[in-house]
């Protein structure tokens, strides 16, 4: 069994060879510190500027509004904590959604313990945030709305433009965690009235350990990592030049191929969804049918549990992920699946498959063929299925 | 993450299935937490467990502990079966990751639930056996849907 079918691209992606090639000279050749004066560091400095400009261009931002960070989680933490501190005099109320990544939710919990009040807005059964609830939650002391661009588990794309318009109308800052959406779907910070945006390198075929935060000019949040004058004094630490170059190269490739990728990957995703729903009974698709990330498919198979499914898929060389309790390290299944209204026992049987541009139709066919047998096998062992069959015979 | 024995019992579960006329059957766990085990026992007139079968909804460890538990109780007397504790199941599987220890507890409870059902059907009292707390009625289960 040598075949590897990697369908966990929402977890991380392969670094593209072109990206690695762009990065390599910055380890051994142009290793100078871009903050240095001497000309030896010029190549590194130029490369950092170039990457910043490419990334800014991709989201319609100005170059000096892009700040390099250690990754998406750092950006999310920075956005929330620094906004809370900087705008404390205006108020201590933040609005977010129930389906955010834990980098947002756990930071919100941290702030709650320090006297901030957080409102968690509901989503509908497809995972789209309820805009009327969002607007109604805004108070005079609301300082920030943070809603993700697209959900990491179920792929639903949020109405960023509408959220941005609401935030602007009420004079509230709008941050979006775009870790899953950045470079995958078009985002424009001006058209969508986004004030802050988090993104990560390794979700777009760039390296791990690098991310960005976009901060609109005029937003007064300060440094989160202290210690140096890098990043306009807002993010200390020697620049991760190879990482920055890699993320820039990955963004460049993503921009050049975005239209094609969206079209091709969505088609393959829809083919996967159709086959699974047609050929495996008692299965549901989680998330929005069409308004979802091009590469995301998320299913629930009734009567079975996710971890068992993942082990059996792994034995067939297929990498996927699940929102079951056993894979989350707690007793509860994914908060996202519960937020869209699924009962616990159905949420335990979830499977997320996330494609990339490299995924082929053969990969999908192989996966669905294996998956059918796996589901059948686990159901034949399931007391829930046994009861279900008995009840339906009577 | 799992020992070879756990993987073996997950991949080739022993005694998986239903039983037509069991002497006792017990279902423990709940769908909310993601683990349900049902154990069927066939106990002869001498009080020896002739056969054990199981069905499990749950993770790899849940399947493996159920499988091992059925293996361990087969051929044993009721009193001997009561000594098949979660620790015994875990040891027989060469250990479990800490987060999966509850699966072995569930396996122990499944044995107890099946024995409790056997005792009730036969109007006897099994010394040392208390009513399993985790037992769930079939009715509650159906309502979940």
TrEMBL record, chain A:
Described function: Master enzyme that delivers sulfur to a number of partners involved in Fe-S cluster assembly, tRNA modification or cofactor biosynthesis. Catalyzes the removal of elemental sulfur atoms from cysteine to produce alanine. Functions as a sulfur delivery protein for Fe-S cluster synthesis onto IscU, an Fe-S scaffold assembly protein, as well as other S acceptor proteins.
Name of protein: Cysteine desulfurase IscS
Keyword hit for Transcription: no
Positions contributing to pyridoxal 5'-phosphate binding: 72-73, 152, 180, 200-202, 238
EC number: 2.8.1.7
Species of origin: Roseburia porci
UniProt keywords, alphabetically: 2Fe-2S, Cytoplasm, Iron, Iron-sulfur, Metal-binding, Pyridoxal phosphate, Transferase
Keyword Ribonucleoprotein: no
A GO term for molecular function: 2 iron, 2 sulfur cluster binding
Pathway linked to the protein: Cofactor biosynthesis; iron-sulfur cluster biosynthesis
Gene of this entry: nifS
SUPFAM superfamilies per UniProt: PLP-dependent transferases
Pfam family, one: Aminotran_5
TrEMBL record, chain B:
Residue span(s) of domain NIF system FeS cluster assembly NifU N-terminal: 1-123
InterPro entries recorded: NIF_FeS_clus_asmbl_NifU-like, NIF_FeS_clus_asmbl_NifU_N
An MF annotation (GO) of this entry: iron-sulfur cluster binding
GO biological process, one term: iron-sulfur cluster assembly
SUPFAM superfamilies: SufE/NifU
Gene3D superfamilies: 3.90.1010.10
Pfam annotation, one family: NifU_N
Top-level taxon of the source organism: Bacteria
PANTHER family tied to this protein: IRON-SULFUR CLUSTER ASSEMBLY ENZYME NIFU HOMOLOG
Protein name: Fe-S cluster assembly scaffold protein NifU
């Amino acid at each position: 069994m040598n075949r590897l079918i990697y369908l966990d691209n929402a977890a991380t992606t392969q670094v593209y060879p072109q990206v690695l090639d762009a990065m390599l000279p910055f380890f051994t050749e142009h290793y100078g510190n871009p903050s240095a004066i001497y000309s030896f560091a010029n190549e590194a400095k130029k490369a950092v500027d170039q990457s910043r400009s490419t990334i800014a261009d991709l989201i319609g931002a100005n170059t000096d509004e892009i700040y390099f960070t250690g990754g998406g989680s750092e950006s999310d933490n920075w956005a929330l904590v620094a906004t809370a501190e900087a705008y404390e005099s205006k108020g201590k109320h933040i609005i977010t959604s129930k389906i955010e990544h834990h980098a947002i939710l756990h930071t919100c919990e941290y702030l709650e313990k320090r006297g901030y009040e957080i409102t968690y807005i509901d989503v509908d059964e497809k995972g789209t945030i309820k805009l009327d609830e969002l607007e109604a939650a805004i108070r005079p002391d609301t300082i920030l709305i943070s809603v993700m661009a697209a959900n990491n588990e179920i792929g639903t794309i949020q109405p960023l433009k509408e959220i941005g318009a609401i935030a602007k109308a009420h004079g509230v800052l709008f941050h979006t965690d775009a870790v899953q959406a950045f470079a995958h779907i078009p985002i424009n910070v001006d058209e969508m009235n986004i004030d802050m945006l988090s993104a990560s390198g390794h979700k777009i075929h760039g390296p791990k350990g690098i991310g960005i935060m976009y901060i609109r000019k005029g937003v007064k949040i300060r440094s989160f990592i202290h210690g140096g004058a890098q990043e306009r004094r807002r993010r200390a630490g020697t620049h991760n030049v190879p990482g920055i170059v890699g993320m820039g190269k990955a963004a460049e490739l993503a921009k050049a191929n975005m239209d094609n990728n969206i079209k091709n990957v969505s088609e393959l995703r829809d083919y996967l969804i159709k086959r699974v729903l047609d050929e495996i009974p008692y299965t549901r698709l989680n998330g929005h049918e069409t308004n979802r990330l091009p590469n995301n498919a998320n299913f629930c198979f009734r009567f079975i549990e996710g971890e068992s499914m993942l082990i059996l898929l792994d034995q067939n060389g297929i990498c996927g992920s699940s929102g079951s309790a056993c894979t989350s390290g707690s007793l509860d299944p994914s908060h996202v699946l519960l937020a869209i209204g699924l009962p616990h026992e159905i949420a335990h049987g979830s499977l997320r498959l996330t494609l990339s541009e490299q995924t082929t139709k053969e990969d999908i066919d192989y996966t669905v063929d294996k998956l059918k047998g796996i589901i059948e096998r686990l159901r034949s062992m399931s007391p829930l299925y046994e009861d279900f069959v008995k009840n339906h015979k009577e | 993450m799992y020992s070879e024995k756990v993987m073996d019992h997950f991949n080739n579960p022993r005694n998986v299935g239903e039983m037509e006329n069991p002497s006792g059957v017990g279902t423990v766990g709940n769908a909310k937490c993601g683990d349900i085990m049902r154990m069927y026992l066939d106990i002869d007139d001498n009080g020896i467990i002739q056969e054990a079968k199981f069905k499990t909804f749950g993770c790899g460890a849940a399947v493996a502990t159920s499988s091992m538990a059925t293996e361990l109780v087969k051929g044993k007397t009721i009193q001997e079966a009561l000594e098949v504790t979660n620790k015994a199941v875990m040891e027989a599987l060469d250990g479990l990751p800490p987060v999966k220890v509850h699966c072995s507890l569930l396996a122990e409870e499944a044995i107890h639930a099946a024995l409790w059902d056997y005792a009730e059907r036969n109007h006897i009292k099994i010394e040392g056996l208390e009513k399993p707390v985790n037992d769930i009625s079939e009715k509650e289960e159906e309502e979940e849907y």
